[in-house]
Amino acid sequence: MSRSEPRSPPTRGWGRGxxxxxxxxxxxxxxxxxxxxxxxxxxxxxxxxxxVYDFPREYRRHATLPCAEGSGLIYLAxxxxxxxSYAPEENAIxxxxxxxxxxxxxxxxxxxxxxxxxxxxxxxxxxxxHQDGALYRVDTRDASCAESDYDASRGDxxxxxxxxxxxxxxxxxxxxxxxxxxxxxxDGAESGGLGRIVGGTKLERIGEFSEPLRGLDAELTGTxxxxxxxxxxxxxxxxxxxxxxxxxxxxxxxxxxxxxxRAWAFAFWGGAFYFFWEPLGARSSNxxxxxxxxEIEHLxxxxxxxxxxxxxxxxxxxxxxxx
Length: 323
Description:
By secondary structure, the chain is an all-beta fold. 0% of the residues lie in helices and 38% in strands.
């Protein structure tokens, strides 16, 4: 989540053993006399992935979900329209491509058309909301982009943090949750809080966050076992579990050493929370992790990108590799 303009900061590593891998794919189409351009590769079929679930939902261990290839990674949106992937097991960031989204048909022209936040569904599509309120669907394989049918003017929220959460009695469905503070609502709506986007088009408000986090900006992340969490803009930052049905804050803890400056985002993966945050006055993000033992670990510093959004699908593991 960010209100900043695109900028390309320098790159440095952080911490012993930290690994930063930045890859850039370049596709060149050649067409000559008597030759036809090669057709694009077909989209990979969704794979049946068997995710691991937390107790007491172990009965779902053998219930597969239709997860696209690559949907278990964390994906990142950075200023400059860059789409990145982050592999937690490798602690590595890689470039996917540039999101060349078409001009919005529904965005508010008085705001910049730059990335604000993102979420990823099981099919490997990143839902990226821009500063002007436009919502785009981005393919996480190649960063190709198309505007969705969502129209911010039909609901209260203009800009929002967002995440998909596994829902339903058997957790085989998923719901797109969004969160906005009062200043991020449409045309000065009186309240923000939590909502959900139904069918990719309609916003339904759920309610305001309960105290002490009422009215604050929040990024969201969801899990395959039905939990919803918020990364709130306090000083230091706050991590909170949210009741997805009521918006009530179930638990909250401060995150010493982690701030929400110009750009901040997070995701849950393998029993840990990964925070992408920019120190005050910087132009490049750090990566930190709250591990399963409740310890904050600083993994990467000054990664060379200003990360404004992070998304992970409900196909990602909910338990770590260690017992």
